[in-house]
Amino acid sequence: MLDLVFMGTPAFAVPALEALLAQGHRVKLVVTQPDKPKGRGQKAAASPVKEKALELGIPLAQPDSLKTPEFQRLIAEQKADLLVVVAFRILPASLFPLARFGAVNIHGSLLPKYRGAAPIQWAIAGGESETGVTIFQLDDAVDHGKILAQVKTPIGPDETAGELFGRLSGMGRDLLLTTVADLEAGCARPLEQNHTEATPAPKLKKEDGRIDWSLPAASLHNRVRAFNPYPVCYTTEAGTNRILRIHRTQVLPDTDLPPGVLSMEAGRQPVVGTGKGALRLLEVQWEGKPKVSGQDFVNGLRGAELSFS
User: Is 236 found in the same domain as 188?
Assistant: First the structure.
């Protein structure tokens, strides 16, 4: 069994931490982000990884910087065999020699595709029918290191980022266990990435969710799925500043409506025209209001005509 330092922050990382411990590895230190303000009261909130480390009684560090001499000494003192990094932040290369096998990372895409902070979301937004999980060795460039293991999975045609996130978290956990066992046994075979095939997956911004109704319905449906649950796709009622968030949709490829124009089809379901085809709105939310079904949304309009910009 190996001595590990585990670095991670969100819920995506927790299954991997639990599984490493269950397999008998010794997690000597957990490193996570400092507590951040959250909610209406903006009170400092612990990350899911911190909460799990406290529950399990594992020593914890929350450094503001990973480059200070104090933090470097803390990592060196662990005499770890491996640094395991899951949904954390970019590590300085000076940390890699401080563990016998360096550092490995779980990444939610089939590298070299979708390098960056939001690989799951951008894979869906890009219309991919397949994605996966990669375990790779960290080096001094983002998501650039040699691949140790990779597993593929299909993306469902209506699957959201939140749903795929949950599946890939479990897959990453299982693949990590196999990879760590291979490193321990000396049978891991790192493979260089084909860097010419690299594609970006930058950090998401709220503006990424704004809908451009001139795009084809299939593209917009992919973006609605990709940005659920964050940042959520949205549009603005024409002539007002009212924002409508769009959580779930269905593509109607043969429906012809002007882009952004709302129509009520048979059964009182809302349909909005796009640059090619139309989108049926299955679940929406006026800003400041609860989510409602498409039919309840139509009922609330009381026959009013609507279009979006």
Answer: no
pLDDT tens, position by position, 115-142: 999 999 999 999 999 999 999 999 999 9
Q: Is residue 307 situated within a structural domain? A: no
H-run or E-run covering 87: none
Provide the residue count of the chain.
309
- Per-residue pLDDT tens over the stretch 144-166: 999 999 999 999 999 999 999 99
What is the CATH number for 85?
3.40.50.170
Token duo for residue 286: 């006026």
**Dist. CA 10–CA 49, nearest whole Å:** 6
Scanning the structure block, which residue is given the tokens 């760590």? 180
Q: What is the CATH number of the domain that holds 260?
A: 3.10.25.10
Spatial separation of the C-alpha atoms in residues 1 and 71, rounded to whole Å: 25
